[in-house]
Fold:
Amino acid sequence: MLTGPEGAASDYVVTSPAPSPPDDAALLIARIAAGDHEAFARFYDAFSSAVYGLVRRVLRDPAPSEEVLQEVFWQVWRDAAQYDPRRGTPAAWLLMRAKTRAIDRLRSIRRREKTFVMPVDERVARSEDPAAENPAVTAEGRGTIQGALARLPEPQRRVIELAFFEGLTQSEIAARLGEPLGTVKTRARLGLERLRAVLGKARAES
Structure:
């Protein structure tokens, strides 16, 4: 695990075993800063396994872990000139960046999980649908949605409106309404189920 600065020994502190770096790792970074692709390939080969292992422990999912791995090494290529050997080893510098990226991605994933996803009618979503260019059809669709929302119980409708129209997350809605998060989640689930049923019936009748 990586930690922040501790004392004056290093600004890049690694408390878990760091990978065994090549003897010329700092020189490789200097060459990367000068645009040396061969040096970058050698640096990637030396450290990619350790970076992926750290990121995977944070995210626990291979797909985003592989994406973060590539982001970390793109950052190395772009920011190699910022490395200062007086502040720590190449391994510590690299793994600190990897941990920061992994935590940022984890927070992003959690934010998305807390955000509602509006059920999408594929026929409306397709831009090539001729009806999509018809203002009358668009207005009719909005009227259908508004009518469906009007048929929901007020607590459920309020939660869904805050999510879709104001872009609030479940946690933000709970804070806005002064309700427990669990209550908001339940209202959202029930409201979406009812909304889907109402919209599905309306499409079947049209």
Q: What stands out?
A: The two ends are 58 Å apart (CA to CA).
